[in-house]
Write a structure and sequence with these properties.
- By secondary structure, the chain is an alpha+beta fold.
- It has two domains: 7-212, Metalloenzyme, LuxS/M16 peptidase-like (Cytochrome Bc1 Complex, Chain A, domain 1, 2-Layer Sandwich); 237-415, Cytochrome Bc1 Complex, Chain A, domain 1 (2-Layer Sandwich), CATH 3.30.830.
- It is 43% helix and 19% strand.
- The protein contains 15 helices and eleven strands.
- Strands 1-2-6-3-5-4 form a six-stranded mixed sheet, with helices on both faces. Strands 7-11-8-10-9 form a five-stranded mixed sheet, with helices on both faces.
- Strand 9 and strand 10 form a beta hairpin.
């Protein structure tokens, strides 16, 4: 049973050069995960270097002065570790999962990549082809395609609207020298966050981080900011015509940035709206009307902006109906209070999901990295669960009215014909 005494121990230390080290000790786990996050990504790129952050993410696995690409892979493999990375709009995150006992060796390889990767010229050219194929793959996949297009449209005119992968033109033209210049100008100490989750000792991680990352250049990356008074582009509709069987669409509503005072109420609202088989969208769109096989809602939160997004894939002849129904379910929160039974079930779903996630060190290392970066400090799970438990039906209705009343969402779709318009 989860109690305050059994809650994971969270600790945060900031090194003299500005690197932050956060650990979540979960005793009894055999595994652990270590991550290195750089708080600089797509939104820090210039137009001509679009996709550089993601390109560099690929290339960090391709060699350092002491390890070539094969040796990096072989060393991870020889100790039973698995490594990966991802790029988002605001960060690039490199991480590895291994037995807790070999986290020091795992961290050593990851840190060497992060600090010393020299982006070998021959690897740049090979990986350029890989990234270009990734761009084409995303174009061919309708779900990925419309997500990317929606994200760029929703945040048009904002650095967050820059495509993560870049374009065929920018990736095709960017040189190794320009990539290296971007890395050296952004992989800086004040933007670096080390996170470790599992059965680990905080002081040992701090000591190793200070030693392995000592050569990281100091400073803070230059960030791009939106114009003063910027607003996301809602109330607009775009359709991309393709010969397909289904119409896939995203629709979105503006939210306050990450760390806002309403975030726990919004987590409950999103759970009720579109998370799982008990959600209103699942029941109304799929179960009662048979409009879609897949329908859900999600929140994308960043340092200075956020959005609530709804996705569905449906038949083209009923796409407008699906958009109208989804919008109606959002506005329903403004017009009526959720029942106490539904509220209690949503809270329990969130509570159980977060507690079960404690068994997954990979999920936890991402969580503590994100909360530390976005909130300024790691958020203890017991405090977040207390905040979720305290949300009332009146508060859910109040925040819905504040954020969604009178708002016409953005709708973007891909599929045959003319596509759906804005909700009616």
């Amino acid at each position: 049973m989860f109690t305050l005494s059994t809650a994971p121990k969270l600790q945060l230390t900031t090194l003299p050069n500005g690197i932050r080290v956060v650990t979540q000790q979960i005793q009894g786990m055999q595994s652990a995960a270590v991550g290195i996050r750089i708080d600089s990504s797509t939104r820090n790129e210039e137009p001509e270097t679009g996709g550089a952050s993601h390109f560099i993410e690929h290339l960090l696995f391709k060699g350092t002065p002491s390890r070539d690409a094969d040796r990096i892979t072989d060393e991870f493999n020889s100790i039973g570790a698995r490594a990966n990375a991802y790029t988002s709009q605001e960060e690039v995150f490199y991480y590895a999962v291994s037995l807790a006992s070999i986290i020091p060796a795992t961290f050593d390889i990851l840190a060497d990549m992060f600090v010393n990767s020299w982006l070998p010229g021959d690897e740049v050219e090979k990986e350029r082809g890989v990234v270009l194929q990734e761009i084409l793959m995303n174009q061919d996949n309708p779900g990925r395609f419309i997500y990317n297009q929606f994200h760029q449209g929703f945040w048009q005119g904002h650095p967050l609207g820059t495509p993560i992968l870049g374009t065929a033109e920018t990736i095709g033209n960017i040189s190794r020298e320009r990539l290296m210049e971007h890395k050296l100008g952004n992989y800086l100490s004040n933007a670096t966050l080390v996170s470790v989750a599992g059965n680990v000792e905080h002081e040992q991680v701090v000591e190793q981080a200070a030693r392995l990352l000592a050569e990281l250049p100091t400073g803070t990356p230059k960030g791009r900011k939106p114009s003063e008074g910027y607003r996301v582009a809602v109330g607009q509709n775009v359709h991309y015509q393709r010969a397909m069987e289904q119409t896939h669409f995203y629709m979105g509503y503006p939210l306050p940035p990450a760390g806002n005072e309403h975030r726990h109420k919004l987590a409950v609202l999103n759970q009720i709206l579109g998370s799982g088989m008990n959600s209103r969208l699942f029941r109304e769109v799929r179960e009662r009307r048979g409009l879609a096989y897949t329908v859900y809602s999600m929140m994308s939160s960043y340092t200075d902006s956020a959005g609530l997004m709804i996705y569905a894939g449906t038949g083209p002849e009923r796409a407008q109906e699906a958009v109208d129904v989804c919008h109606g379910e959002v506005l329903r929160f403004c017009d009526e209070k959720v029942s106490e039974e539904m509220l209690a079930a949503a809270k329990e779903q969130i509570r159980c999901a977060r507690l079960m996630a404690l068994d997954d060190c990979e999920t936890q290392v991402r969580r503590i990295s994100n909360t530390t970066s976005l909130l300024g400090a790691p958020e203890p799970i017991e405090l977040s669960l207390e905040a979720i438990s305290a949300v009332t039906a009146e508060e859910v209705q109040e925040v819905a009215g504040l954020l969604f009343q009178g708002v016409v969402p953005r709708v973007e779709s891909v599929g045959p014909g003319e596509g759906p318009g804005l909700p009616r």
